[in-house]
Amino acid sequence: MATAEHVHSADYPHFRALLEESRGRLQSELQEGGERRLASDRYSALAGEAPDAGDASVATEQADLRNAQIGRDVSELRAVEAAISRIDDGSYGICTRCATPIALPRLQANPAAERCIDCQAAYEKQFADRPAQPVTRSI
Ligand SMILES: [Zn+2]
Fold first, then answer.
1. Mean pLDDT, the chain, integer
2. How far is the CA of 97 from the centre of ligand 1 (A)?
3. Overall domain count for the chain
């Protein structure tokens, strides 16, 4: 444990800087995405009530792609903000599931990581088995 490579509070400023940089990037991406969406909504309103069916389906597809991108940005932003608040309360770098320190290389690769590698693998497996389903125990 004493020799385990994990984050110390002395490393917090380094990770905070990385996280704040990500937060700024995500916020501006989301803002740009929102502005583009407003512009295209205005365009649809101007285009009239009987759009060409082909154009409409292309537009829907593009909106879906944009929404998927925005969804990814929003969840990444939430993860980054949660990591910053863990720095604030001193629990940064500790797995939120099993409370063991997260390996330093993992945090360097993903500063917003909230789980150790084992818990992350278990988490991903759980959701891969039951995609988009709330986890319920029937036993
Ligand atoms: Zn863990």
1. 85
2. 5
3. 1
138 falls within a domain: no
Task: Give the range among 20-24, 46-50, 88-92, 124-128 with minimum mean pLDDT.
Answer: 46-50
pLDDT digits (tens, 9 = 90+) for 37-70: 777 777 667 666 556 777 778 888 888 888 888 8
The reply to whether 137 falls in a domain is no
Give the domain extent around 44.
Answer: 9-129
Q: Is the pLDDT of residue 105 over 60?
A: yes
Phi, psi of 101 (to 5 degrees): -65, 140
State the first-to-last Cα distance of the chain, in angstroms, to the nearest integer.
Answer: 37
116 is a domain residue: yes
CA of 7 to the centre of ligand 1 (A): 15
Residue 134 counted as domain residue: no
What is the whole-number distance in angstroms between the Cα of residue 120 and the centre of ligand 1? Answer: 7
Distances (CA, A) of 128 to 76, 123, 125: 19, 9, 5
Q: Give distance in angstroms: CA of 54 to centre of ligand 1.
A: 49
